[in-house]
Amino acid sequence: MKILSIVGARPQFVKAAPVSQAIRKKHTEVLLHTGQHYDENMSRIFFDDLGIPRPDYNLEIGSESHAVQTARILEGVEQVLFEQNPDAVLVYGDTNSTIGGALAATKLHIPVAHVEAGLRSFNWDMPEEINRVLTDRISRWLFCPTQTAVDHLKNEGRTEGVFLTGDVMYDALLHFSAIAEARPSPLQKFELSEKAYCLATVHRPANTDDPQNLTAIVNAFVESGETIIFPVHPRTRKFLTDYGLDKKIKDSENLRVVEPLSYLDILVLEKYAEKILTDSGGMQKEAYLWGVPCVTLREETEWTETIEEGWNRLVGARHDEILEAIADFHPTAPRRFSYGDGHASEKIVRILEEALETV
After folding, report:
1. Annotated catalytic, 203?
2. Which residue of the set 203, 233, 319, 343 is catalytic?
3. Are 303 and 195 in a shared domain?
4. What is the mean pLDDT of residues 299-304?
5. pTM given for the model
6. How many structural domains is the chain composed of?
């Protein structure tokens, strides 16, 4: 079995790590990095920390408009498909790398497997929603992290080729947390005490590209008085400067902006945080898995289980609600561990083995 795996953005590096390991135990994997994230702190560090094999191909697409980026991914992936002729293409999540890779493979009649299928925010203003829905529509195998995702696909009329595997990010968390704990602790580096700080990330365009939203978020962070460690995405840093918020941050005593951190350092900071404040999908889920309350700076989430079980609160970019949640959000309900058993990667590879034997 020969699989072409396509990654291009930070969360996909994490998702690919355990699946790649499972594939390579018995089969051939060709790893293609689109270069959708190209800053060293945002991509190369993940390959180093997670032990993912160096990509066989790097398209070096870089940051462009959605149309240009997707077109270049299509063109580059198609060339690799001609060269490698894999049995299947494996794509992850909901980025332009996901839809570009899936389209290129489908047009060459190479079957596509979609990891993290069936997620829905029902917000068509999000490029990610368009990418995930279209990728699900053209994929042969849909690997769903939750029963909710399976139900979404069923409601859309899709039941064939749908598999409830659990979440590969849970696999990654279980595997890499032990490695992370063995490294020098970021708590010592930043002089933090366990459960005495909040961890924040902000990167979605709905927040970063809107001066009113980003200002409301930063003001709430500063006014909360809580120690907040804030690894800042390069795009976010640019907008903080553009909107004049960098001075407010510099003058604050509690909000500490730092450079982007490795996945392993983020895992440790998540685990020992009092709360997580984020617009990231992956961090919402990791907060839930660690048992850390999550305040989500969005109006909706794909990970509805975290809301239903009381461990996640949606506050958007509303200043007063952010402040209230930082101060008073304290979940007490037990978690049902809705994201599988930590063996999703092995299940995915086994399903592909059985499917491709009959093709």
Report:
1. yes
2. 203
3. yes
4. 93
5. 0.86
6. 2
